[in-house]
Specification:
Largest sheet: 2 strands, antiparallel
Number of strands: 2
CATH architecture of the largest domain: Up-down Bundle
Distance between the termini: 24 Å
CATH topology of the largest domain: Growth Hormone, Chain: A
Radius of gyration: 22 Å
Oligomer: single chain
Number of helices: 13
Structural class: mainly alpha
Helix content: over 70%
Shape: globular
């Protein structure tokens, strides 16, 4: 007789179908406001990522070391503040955190054109703005992921995350082009002023949401911040479901870290592609992401949650395996391989991301969701950094294709983790982790 699939003993099992895409989603005014705010915020963050380095280069004559420091601010902020952000997001209402993060970023970015007009713009100023804005972005992102289940019923999370991912892909595709146009037309500091307005618009949409959040925990229910951070880490470590999702997500980020380090070198030196061709190929990734966002709810309804996560991981890993298979010195053939990777890898990677994020949201009680999201995000950020270092070292010592091979092991690891975990057996019934508030009462899983 077939054995029933293993269940995570730290969860209570509910009944909603996570893959249901109810047509009323787009008639929900509060979701539309949140969708608009999140999309505008993503768009603004991407323009910031483009315009800040240009301001440093074109106005302050910054060199490679200064640009590297500027680029590192986002990663450093996520590592330093991510776990703290998760604890505070679980202590407070999420929407005000997001609104204040938007307003703070608008003020920070608005200081750059003011300093430029006054002739007082400096590199330390840009570094400070980049670091502080990255901290606020970390708070916004953690709160955003935790706030969505307040607006959208858990059975519609895949549809909601698909919509958010699709618009985010469009924002990513358009932000770099629009940002470049604004920089060309108005100079980088003035383009940043326009960027600051996007965060004001995002905050206005959030302020117009009518749905009430659950009341935050009382002071008597709160633990010290460090203890709450520790509890969030223990929850992820002790739940087979969340642990598998964190480890699998980490494996894909090792792959991303390695590939991100050596991709441009491989495309230019081994394949002989120029910047224009690489840019066009990268644009195909947006089309792949849109396709993935469109099919994620359908795959979830057809195959179930866990199998869809596996499908996404396998497709993502196989798609990325096309890159090192591209023959050296054959630019046209190499471009075809890289284009196929963008379409296949990004499409299936988006499917995986949407369903995995939706499962974490649906599997986690509201009072611990911020810490769970922050724990997973910080863990994967560390592994992205590790992947970047590994990619650079292996690429230098053994060649770029060897680095790609090591990166692909991260994808294989992700597939194996999910295959041997309860996640593989989750189909239409997502778990809801019910944790006591006290850290000492955390249940053991074995």
């Amino acid at each position: 007789m077939a054995q029933p699939p293993p269940r995570d003993p730290t969860v209570a099992w509910a009944t909603p179908d996570l893959g249901t895409a109810a047509p009323t989603l787009w008639r929900d005014g509060d979701f539309l406001r949140l969708w608009s705010a999140s999309t505008i915020s993503v768009f603004g963050s991407l323009i910031t990522r483009t315009a800040l380095p240009f301001a440093a280069i074109l106005v302050l004559n910054a060199g490679p070391l200064e640009i590297s420091a500027l680029r590192s601010m986002e990663l450093i902020a996520a590592l330093l503040i991510g776990l703290v952000a998760g604890a505070w997001v679980d202590r407070l209402r999420r929407r005000p955190i997001m609104i204040w993060a938007d307003l703070g970023r608008a003020v920070l970015l608005g200081s750059i054109p003011v300093a430029y007009v006054l002739g007082a713009l400096s590199l330390p100023h840009l570094l400070l703005v980049a670091f502080a804005a990255a901290i606020l972005t970390t708070f916004f992102d953690v709160a955003d992921n935790a706030f969505l289940p307040t607006i959208v019923p858990r059975e519609r999370l895949v549809a909601a995350n698909s919509a958010l991912t699709a618009s985010g892909s469009v924002a990513e595709f358009s932000a770099f082009g629009i940002g470049g146009f604004l920089i060309e037309l108005f100079t980088a500091p003035i383009a940043i002023a326009i960027d600051a307005l996007t965060f004001l618009a995002s905050g206005a949409f959030l302020a117009s949401i009518r749905r009430k959040e659950p009341p935050p925990r009382s002071h008597a229910e709160r633990e010290p911040v460090l203890r709450e951070i520790r509890d969030g880490m223990r929850i992820v470590a002790r739940s087979p479901t969340l642990r598998a999702l964190a480890l699998s997500h980490g494996g894909t980020h090792i792959l991303w870290g390695v590939f991100g380090t050596v991709y441009l070198l491989f495309a230019t030196e081994d394949l002989g592609l120029g910047p224009a061709a690489i840019g066009i190929i990268a644009g195909l990734g947006g089309a792949g992401s849109l396709a993935g966002a469109a099919i994620a709810p359908r795959l979830t309804r057809r195959f179930g949650i866990g199998p869809t996560i596996l499908i996404g991981m396998v497709g993502f890993t196989l798609g990325n395996a096309l890159i090192p298979l591209a023959p050296a010195g054959a630019a046209l053939v190499g471009a075809a391989f890289l284009s196929a990777q963008q379409l296949i890898g990004d499409s299936f990677g988006t499917v995986y991301e949407i369903v995995e994020v939706s499962l974490v949201q649906s599997a986690t009680a509201d009072r611990i969701l911020g810490r769970v999201n922050a724990t997973i995000h910080t863990f994967t950020t560390l592994l992205t950094l590790a992947g970047a270092v590994i990619g650079g070292v292996i690429g230098e010592l053994f060649g770029l294709r060897a680095a790609f091979a090591i990166g692909l092991l991260g994808g294989v690891l992700s597939i194996a983790v999910v295959w041997f975990s309860p996640v593989r057996h989750i189909r239409t019934t997502p778990p809801l982790i019910e944790q006591p508030l006290g850290g000492d009462q955390l249940p053991l899983t074995e």
